[in-house]
Amino acid sequence: MCPMHHARYSAIVAISIWMIIPVQAQTTSRVRNGFEVEIEHTFTVESEKSVLEIERYSGDVELVGSDGDQVVITEIVYVRARNEEDAREKGIRLFSEIEETRDHIRVEGSLRNGDNKNLYVKLARGMSAIVSTTNGDITVMSTDAGIEVMSGNGDISVVSSSSFVEAHSGNGDIDIADIGAAVTASSGAGDITLADINDQVDLETGFGDITLSRVAGDAKAQTGGGDIVVEEIAGDADLRTAGGDIEAYQIEGSADLSTAGGSIQVADIKGDLFAISFGGDIEGNAIGGTVSVETLAGDIELFDIQDEIVATTEVGDIVVSIRNSEFLQTGTIELRADHGDIDLYLPKSTNADVTIDLGFDGEFEIEDSPRALRLKDASRDFRGGRVRSVKGILNRGGGRIEIRTGSGEVSIQASR
After folding, report:
1. Residues 6+ apart with CB under 8 A from 121
2. Spatial CB neighbours of 179, under 8 Å, sequence gap ≥ 6
């Protein structure tokens, strides 16, 4: 039982008098080498704030919401038996124990029969649910109150809920869609997929991939070894993976991205972009805010940049294209490639003060291209028979452009 459940419902349990519902097998049918024994319980709840609690169930669980005031619980168990009478007797021993109070129904699963049982529940209007299974899958559809589900090894699917969802699986996949409130989900080793969430999300998986689309709030996602793909986020995006790639598209807020061993690809970020990779390329297009990106061993390509930028790579090339350079009246561009080429594309009208550090083996290509932007009042620092640095201004001068390479070629050209 999760801590949140204790905090939220312990007071109810303390003052309630539980009524244990007697078990009577209703129907049997022959399947394979045995029988399916089915029992159905119907309850009428008086409160729209009622709670269904399912504890330690060993099979699959399916919940479906309704607009009525009745709860219908159907359980099917599979038994090996000689005949129907024998099957009913065995089924009675395996059925879950059900307890009831005025606004609380609790189902306690039996662990004696492995995965050979399933539970189907029609929820009353406004009924919240807390479900835990040891091995089975959990499916929830069309509910209008809070859902908390936890599975030890099974998959979880929640579709169409107007309230919050919390989902946790030890090793299974999690799929959640069409949710009207916040979502929190975690899996030890499975994939997590979310779509159409009308609030913020907080996701974590140990080794799986995370896919997220159409979120009305902030999005936070973390995986220990998988890829992350997000799109259409109305708030900020905070995405981290220890060993996979990150893709982020159509982010209305800012994006904070980090991967220890993969590439990063982004497009249409309205806010600021902060991205770091310890072993992959970084590609971006249409970034509306400030940009700070760094990779230890990869190329950086950024196009349609509209604000200040800092881009750094230890080993790799840098290509940056500025769409509107008005920010350079007082702003800055800082580009550094310790071992790589740097190509900067600017509008012809750009006003900036330029400093280029060429290290020991760098070269500045100012005459080779017909689109090259020429520096006025340029000065060169010669050491050891080579140009080590270049300073000058573009047009009237203004903001600061600093470019540094240790062993690559540098070019500043007009935007296409």
Report:
1. 52, 54, 61, 62, 63, 64, 71, 72, 73, 74, 129
2. 158, 160, 161, 162, 164, 165, 194, 196, 197, 198, 199
Provide the pLDDT confidence category of residue 252 given band limits of 50, 70 and 90.
Answer: very high
At 272, list the tokens: 């600021």
> What pairing do the DSSP bridges indicate for beta strands 70-79 and 128-133?
unpaired
Backbone angles phi, psi at 289, to 5 degrees: -105, -165
Q: Are 48 and 67 in contact (CB under 8 A)?
A: no
In residues, how long is the chain? Answer: 416
CA distances from 399 to 260, 303, 307 (A): 33, 20, 12
Helix, strand and coil content of the chain, in percent to the nearest 5, comes to 5, 55, 35
In our burial notation (b when 16+ CB lie closer than 10 A, e otherwise), range 16-41 reads: beeeebebebeebeeeeebbbbbbeb
Token digits of residue 393: 């201004």
At residue 109, φ and ψ (nearest 5 deg) are: -75, 150
In whole angstroms, what is the distance from residue 22 CA to residue 18 CA? Answer: 13
Query: DSSP label at 372?
Result: B
From the list 285, 347, 339, 346, the residue with the least C-alpha distance to 312 is 339
Q: Over the stretch 114-153, which tens digit does the pLDDT of each residue have?
A: 448 899 999 999 999 999 998 899 999 999 999 999 999 9
Matching residue, tokens 């995370």: 210
Mean pLDDT is lowest, of 94-98, 304-308, 397-401, for 94-98
Q: How many C-beta atoms lie closer than 10 Å to residue 114's C-beta?
A: 12
The residue written with tokens 């009308």 in the block is: 198
Q: Which of these, 31, 38, 50, lies nearest to 76 by C-alpha position?
A: 38
Q: How far apart are CA 187 and CA 80, in angstroms?
A: 34
